[in-house]
Amino acid sequence: MEGIRAGLILSLLVGPILVLLLQLSLRRGTFMALVGAAGIWVSDLIYVLLTHYGMGAVTKFTAYPYFAEVVGTVGMILLVGMATIMWFRPPVIIEADSERIRTRRSVLGAFLQGVAINAFNPFTIGFWTVFSITQIHDRDLPEPSAWAIYGGILGTIILTDTLKVLSAKKLREFLQPEMVIKVQRFGALALGMFGLVLGLRVWW
């Protein structure tokens, strides 16, 4: 349930990942959009593996007093900062195009687009790093519990991304600039609350 809750918060964010999925679906069809989404999911899984199993490299730092508090505070600032930016960011414009491309090259291109837009997203890097440290390692969760949380997040992301792709046309009609602002600010509020809860958890 923890993982599902975090995954739902992430799914509410209106950013470059949502724009990519909708643009691929509208321009190249559902299959190409799912290929792009698969690239996003693969890069998320890679970050989970790197942050979860890479923590051994920083074990000597975790022994420092207030390590968890410092990381949690930095994470809180990053998440609240991202939420603030999202709150005031101009709405994205989602355009449709009649072009349909279904070559092997375009399939690989769509997959790499998904990998790149997620892998080089500072928010993705920051989220998985902070989440792994503060919500998994600092709580000394056993492997089954840790992967239950990771699985909840990834499973929720996969499900919601798939639904976004399948309902791309309806979403495009729904996500007019005025509605994008409302959805964007709701996601920003949820993300900011998540950051504040993170800060409270590590200090209290």
Task: Explain what the structure shows.
This protein has helices spanning 2-11, 16-28, 30-53, 59-62, 67-88, 104-119, 122-137, 143-166, 168-174, 177-203. With 204 residues, it is mainly alpha-helical. The chain has one domain (2-203). Helix 1 packs antiparallel against helix 10, helix 3 (30-53) crosses helix 7 (122-137) and helix 5 (67-88) runs antiparallel to helix 7 (122-137). The longest helix has 27 residues, at 177-203. The radius of gyration is 18 Å and the shape is globular.
Distance between the termini: 22 Å
Instruction: Give the SSE string.
Output: HHHHHHHHHH
- What structural category do the secondary elements indicate? mainly alpha
Instruction: Figure out the total of helices.
Output: 10
Largest sheet: none
What is the CA-based Rg, rounded? 18 Å
Oligomer: single chain
Mass-distribution shape: globular
Count of individual beta strands: 0
Mean of pLDDT:
77
Please, how many domains? 1
